[in-house]
Amino acid sequence: MKDEVLSILKANLGVYISGQIMCEKLNVSRTAIWKYINALKEEGYAIESVSKKGYRLISSPDLLTFDEINPFLNTKYIGRNYLYFDTLESTNSRSKELASKPGMNGAVVVSEEQTTGKGRLGRQWISPKHRGIWMSVILKPDIEPSSVPKIVHIAAAAVVLAMKEIGVEPCVKWPNDIILNGKKVCGILTEMSGEINHIDFVVVGIGINANLEPEDIPADMKEKASSIYMETGVIIDRKSLAAKVLNYFEQLYEDFLLTGSIDASVKICRKNSILLGKEIRIISRKKELKAKAVDISDDGELLVQFEDGRIEPIVSGEVSVRGINGYI
């Protein structure tokens, strides 16, 4: 009922609406309306109350609730089942706990903070409250398990397009990092549960450092990690950016399911790659090789050329790619 009160206030943004009108629309008492209004105020909504005029919504808090993100969301099913939390250990971990329940295909798990967020290869992901976008998408695609790594390119392309729409020009560091001014501002973690020939579910975690301050970045990560705000000086509208990512993700993911191809996503990642044409280090199980990144295949593999001239594909997984002298 509180959400319905908020919807009425938003539909009449800046205009007073009487408690009596809300009572009649929602078939509740004026005391109930008063309680819901107070609950919304406690959540950070600025609501003005004037005797004989009613209530007027002045502003909304910077929260990633469904009510706040919904006006920007134009998906058919991605994010329509939207699970919002104030605090979680990890959105990916909670998504894996929920994924087997009915109706979870396309569900999105969002948290204002993660206390034990994680990246690829078990690395820690710093996720301070109200500073970033920490979300996971639950998918149940009818594809071969071997095709799951392709989804990371869909997510990367969606983030790139969403950032470009708000005036930011990021790059992609194959396969799952989004880079701005040479520093990481977003990471993508894809996890799967299934069998040799069957997928139970896939969880795509997307962590975007939207408005982190310098003090939010650990000292040992300052050389390679940053936030969009720190790199641009502009406070990011988190709810708008989160919705744009989900909008683009659904478009690209649906194209993949329909055609079996990630060509559209790969073109975006290839065009915005920060690695192609550079000498890189390929690190796998404590083994390190040097090569030149020359292309990204239509299936999302990184094509590298070794000193002897041979070109081989690198598949994402338990592999890290670094620049010759550092992260990039």
Produce a short descriptive summary.
The chain is of the alpha+beta class and 328 residues long. The chain is built from nine helices and 14 strands.
Describe this entry's structure for a reader.
This protein is of the alpha+beta class and 328 residues long. The termini are far apart. It has nine helices and 14 strands. Helices cover 29% and strands 26% of the residues. The protein has helices at 2-11, 19-26, 30-42, 66-69, 91-98, 150-165, 228-232, 238-259, 263-271, and strands at residues 46-50, 54-59, 82-85, 108-111, 133-139, 171-173, 177-180, 183-195, 198-208, 279-284, 287-296, 302-305, 311-314, 320-323.
Task: Compile the SSE list and pairings.
Blueprint: H1 2-11, H2 19-26, H3 30-42, E1 46-50, E2 54-59, H4 66-69, E3 82-85, H5 91-98, E4 108-111, E5 133-139, H6 150-165, E6 171-173, E7 177-180, E8 183-195, E9 198-208, H7 228-232, H8 238-259, H9 263-271, E10 279-284, E11 287-296, E12 302-305, E13 311-314, E14 320-323
Parallel strand pairs: 3-4
Antiparallel strand pairs: 1-2, 4-5, 5-9, 6-7, 7-8, 8-9, 10-11, 10-14, 11-12, 12-13
Helix pairs in contact: 2-3, 6-8, 6-9
Q: What overall geometry do the principal axes of the alpha carbons give?
A: elongated
Query: What CATH architecture of the largest domain would you give?
Result: 2-Layer Sandwich
Mean pLDDT: 92
Radius of gyration: 22 Å
Helix content estimate? 25-40%
Low-confidence stretches: none
Taking the sheet with the most strands, its summary is: 7 strands, mixed
* CATH classification class of the largest domain: Alpha Beta
- Structurally, the number of domains stands at 3
Q: How many β-strand stretches? A: 14
Strand sequence of the main sheet, in spatial order? 3-4-5-9-8-7-6
Distance between the termini: 50 Å
Q: Which topology of the largest domain does CATH recognise?
A: BirA Bifunctional Protein, domain 2
Elements, N to C (H/E)? HHHEEHEHEEHEEEEHHHEEEEE
Structural class call reads alpha+beta
What share of the residues does DSSP label as strand, in percent?
25-35%
Number of helices: 9
CATH homologous superfamily descriptor of the largest domain: Bira Bifunctional Protein, Domain 2
